[in-house]
TrEMBL record:
Domain of life from the UniProt record: Bacteria
Ranges for region Disordered: 1-24
The organism of origin for this protein: Streptomyces marianii
InterPro entries: PhoX, TAT_signal
Protein name, as recorded: PhoX family protein
Entry-linked Pfam families: PhoX (PF05787)
């Protein structure tokens, strides 16, 4: 229609409609390029991708599988930036011809280890367009995998709970696993959430293993056959060394990345920092599980400005000292929330909240738990203090304009089922398929505050469904959306939301929505992704949008021989998770 290019500044594009095209669909007037695919070489000496001759050695120098979180950091080289990507997990059926899930080979397992982790790769922008291409063999390029060295730091490092037969110090870990979303710090490092680490460990039978959902028998990938540390019966503490927030210094390719124990251990979706007025970092973090919690960490140390070696060294200690909190939310509506998503009679899903302290350094605030136990078994600490059970907290992002914090609660189809918690004002729908976005305002706009106000900004779904809410904006003017997962702000203060769930007969996609002004709540779809894919890692710059197309073709029963998607290279080629840049054909800024 004629008015479709209307919108808040930054959102003036013709929305992409719901669709099931096996490609990345972008608005009229926009172009795209694949920045980098799984398997493209990034390190010196790494070979070109060869689907028929994959090796662990090759993969260790190539871009990993299933790109999720993306960060772009500045670089003092003309037209270049540093791209950091998470590689959350592997889809062996789509990677290997004739894959036998019951009997993976050692080479396949080692390729999967090398395809997990993180990539650092410098990218170059084309002068006249928004196109991005990798600079292979740049000296900053780096791969971290499931076998690279990481160090545990902070108050739980060296704890008996973190010691294994291979590491009696409890400080040295091999690998990072299941890095989902993350964050970029104001001091130029990146944070990476280790999310569903439970799936890699076999025979997890203790009470804490159970709370973290470890596999009780053999794992799907059978890694325990090739390295006993993945067998909890033999190495009960190895899984304790995963489920942390990793901090990486992408500017120092020789640095050992850190797992920051002060930020607690759970299924870390993401970790998004901001600074208090006096310069202390505060990190918001969700635990992505049905009925799990939302957390924040407040550092006791101030960031030092400037790029001196001493300032950088100091800033790399900021996330080791401080207080870990969990959120408890209370609704203010005078009536019970009935679970249908119908607005309460005070017109809004809203209320107040408190941050309950769990531990500060070596001091526990949770009765019956030591500080080390609070950090290693943070979920149990949240259980003890009565934190609010949320609908799967995914990514979180504070608005750089208003300070309000946006939390994606992706869905919770178990809400209200027999024996499970029912709806509350922050999680107002039973059998919640579509999710919601919560807007949190810290008291006095102080990120270190111990209290906050909150309201639901979006209750997702088909706008024709009376149980949806778009910040009060007229629903006939918004795009349908389901399962919000990653969130990011553009330079104009609009919130961008990528989805993972595709519950409305369309593929997943990326949406922009105004958060302030008359158009607050006006949601517009910017792109959709290929069949079976989730949209991840959105970065919205002036001239381009970058997304990670994760797990394209991941449909039950799909294999290399019987693919569900042929993106990005067409029939006869492997489907490959890839990073995509989208920009305007006329070279102007996005959405203006
Ligand atoms: Fe890996 Fe919570 O999505
Ligand atoms: Ca209310
Ligand atoms: Ca996610
Ligand atoms: Ca997700």
């Amino acid at each position: 229609g004629g008015g479709t290019r209307d919108g808040a500044r930054g959102l003036r594009f013709t929305p992409v409609g719901p669709n099931t095209a096996d490609k990345v669909t972008v608005p009229e007037g926009y172009a795209q390029n694949v920045v980098i695919r799984w398997g493209e070489p990034i390190l010196r000496g790494a070979p070109a991708f060869d689907a028929d001759r994959q090796t662990a050695g090759a993969q260790a120098g190539q871009f990993g599988y299933n790109n999720d979180f993306l960060s772009l950091l500045p670089l003092r080289e003309h037209g270049r930036q540093v791209l950091v990507a998470n590689h959350e997990y592997t889809d062996e059926q789509l990677m290997f011809k004739g894959y036998d899930a019951a009997n993976p080979t050692r080479e396949q397992v080692e390729i999967a280890w090398a395809a997990h982790g993180l990539s650092v790769v410098v990218v170059q922008e084309e002068r006249r367009s928004g196109k991005l291409t990798p600079v292979t063999r740049h000296w900053l390029n780096r791969r971290l995998t499931a076998t690279s060295e990481f160090r545990l730091t902070g108050p739980a490092a060296g704890s008996a709970l973190l010691k294994t037969s291979a590491d009696p110090t409890g400080t040295k870990v091999l690998g990072t696993l299941n890095n989902c979303a993350g964050g970029t710090t104001p001091w130029g490092t990146t944070l990476h959430g280790e999310e569903n680490f439970n799936q890699y460990f076999a025979n997890g039978t203790s009470a804490t293993d159970k709370r973290y959902g470890l596999t009780t028998g053999a794992t799907e990938r059978k890694w325990e056959r090739f390295d006993k540390r993945f067998d909890a019966a033999q190495e009960p503490n190895e899984s304790h060394r995963f489920g942390w927030v990793v901090e990486l210094d992408p500017y120092d390719p020789d640095s050992t990345p850190r797992k920051r124990t002060a930020l607690g251990r759970f299924k870390h979706e993401a970790a998004q920092p901001r600074l208090t007025r006096d310069g202390r970092p505060v990190v918001y973090m969700g635990d992505d599980e049905r009925f799990d919690y939302f957390y924040k960490f407040v550092s006791s140390k101030r960031m030092r400005k400037g790029g001196s070696r001493a300032a950088r060294a100091h800033n790399l200690t900021l996330l080791d000292e401080g207080t870990l909190y969990v959120a408890k939310l209370t609704g203010d509506s005078p009536q019970d929330i009935d679970g249908t998503g119908k607005l309460p009679n005070d017109g809004e899903f809203d209320g107040s909240g408190v941050w309950i302290p769990l531990a500060t350094g070596d001091v526990s605030h949770v009765p019956g738990m030591t500080a080390e136990e609070v950090y290693v078994f943070t979920r149990l600490a949240g259980d003890k203090v009565g934190a609010t059970k949320m609908d799967r907290p995914e990514d979180v992002e504070p608005s750089p304009r208003t300070g309000r914090v946006y939390v994606a609660l992706t869905n919770n189809t178990d809400r209200g089922k027999a024996g499970k918690p029912g709806a509350d004002e922050a999680n107002p729908r039973n059998l919640n398929k579509h999710g919601q976005i919560l807007e949190l305002a810290e008291h006095w706009d102080d990120p270190s505050s111990d209290g906050f106000a909150w309201r639901l900004f979006l209750v997702a779904g088909d706008p024709e469904d009376p149980a949806t809410y778009f910040a009060g904006y007229p629903k006939e003017k918004v795009s349908p959306i389901s399962c919000p997962d990653n969130v990011a702000f553009d330079p104009h203060g609009n919130l961008w939301i990528s989805t993972d769930g595709a519950q409305l007969g369309s593929h997943d996609g990326l949406f922009g929505v105004a958060t302030t002004g008359e158009r607050r709540g006006e949601l517009k779809q910017f792109l959709t992704v290929p069949k079976g894919a989730e949209t991840c890692g959105p970065i919205i710059q002036d001239r381009r949008v970058i997304v990670a197309v994760q797990h394209p073709g991941e449909i039950d029963g799909a294999t290399v021989e019987k693919p569900a998607s042929v993106w990005p290279d067409g029939p006869g080629r492997l489907v490959r998770p890839s990073v995509v840049a989208v920009y305007r054909k006329d070279g102007r800024d996005i959405g203006v």
